[in-house]
Amino acid sequence: MAGAASRLRTARPGRERRPLPLPVRLLAMLCAFAFMVAFAVVLARLTLQPSPASEALTHTNMHPGRSLKAYLDQPELRDAVRQIGGNILLGIPFGVLVPVVAPRTRGILRVLLMTAVVMLLVEFAQGALVTGRAFDIDDVILNTTGALIGYLLLGRRLSRAVHARGPRGSRAGKKRASGRA
């Protein structure tokens, strides 16, 4: 019984978490950075490649839900799953990798904001510069949803393992001691 109580005390939130050893942390960050670069290349190839054959079919969508409705109204469910699922899957790596590569972006709101800004920029570039592509707000929403899923499933845990924080009291004490209260 005393052993169980002891384990509970050491497992409480707010207790100091030990970070991974420095070489492992550096390797994890290097791998995350390499995957982020690979993800950026794949994202650019998928979204910024001209599609002249689709030029007549493209249209700008500034109304959330309009494209989603069009996807779901398609006769083939497979096409809707491909469009919606593809956009969600495209955001997942962002939610996993961003908090590892840039620890200051850790947290649901920061990851969502960072993803939304990046995906908005991608969509603006698509609409303004790429033949056969258009800006679609629903793509931004789906990509950001994917990033949220990636963050909740894996990104948060990976980021905490690589960039562990000390207890809250020690951070506040460090800020006061350095004069940044």
TrEMBL record:
Keyword entries, A-Z: Membrane, Transmembrane, Transmembrane helix
This protein's record includes keyword Transmembrane helix: yes
Superkingdom assignment: Bacteria
Statement: the UniProt record of this protein carries the keyword Signal: no
Regions crossing the membrane: 22-44, 84-102, 109-128, 140-158
One Pfam family from the record: VanZ
Domain VanZ-like: 37-154
Entries under PANTHER family matching the protein: INTEGRAL MEMBRANE PROTEIN, MEMBRANE PROTEIN-RELATED
Stated name of the protein: VanZ-like domain-containing protein
Organism: Streptomyces swartbergensis
